[in-house]
Here is the input.
Amino acid sequence: PRALVLIGDRFHEPEHLEAGLRPAFVAAGIQPHFTVDVTHLTAANLAQVDLLVILRDGMLWPGGPSKPYVIWMTPEQERAVVEFVEGGKGFLNLHNSMGLYPENGPYLNLVAGRYIGHGPLERFRVEVVDKAHPITKGVQDWSAADEQHTPPYDEKRARLLLRNRSDDGKTAAAGWWYEPGKGRLAHLASGHTREAL
Here is the structure.
């Protein structure tokens, strides 16, 4: 299997992300094509892979960090992602990949969740809620230094896999899955640090 892996943004160094993700692809026997170029997310490129992985937010800073950002995902890219997944392929949506994408668009509707922020970099627990699902089978609860994302998700469509719990007792969804159309989608909220990856 082959994957298109779109990574890296202003707050997430691509070399760090690739180093954290590559061992998982090797272990799973998946051949990844890593890219930081958002224009590589096309229907033609998706037709050559079995899995899409995104770990980046929806912002580009063409004028530099002191200027306003623009949302990079186009309507054509949103349609390409939805058609890819609903047509029978897989999508792994990681960490901040719901942040600042076209509001109420088909991409965020597909992901079945919303980015609403995160706490500081801290150590917290991630608890396995569904120990029988193939994604989490054999996985034990763990602690990691990371940002605790707190995304709401569509409980009518998606099934919870993981929940994060900070020392002060704050809990939130940390991972879910569902099958849109003929495809498969999973969101995992961890991923700011290499340890979390």
Q: What stands out?
A: The first strand starts at residue 2 and ends at 7.
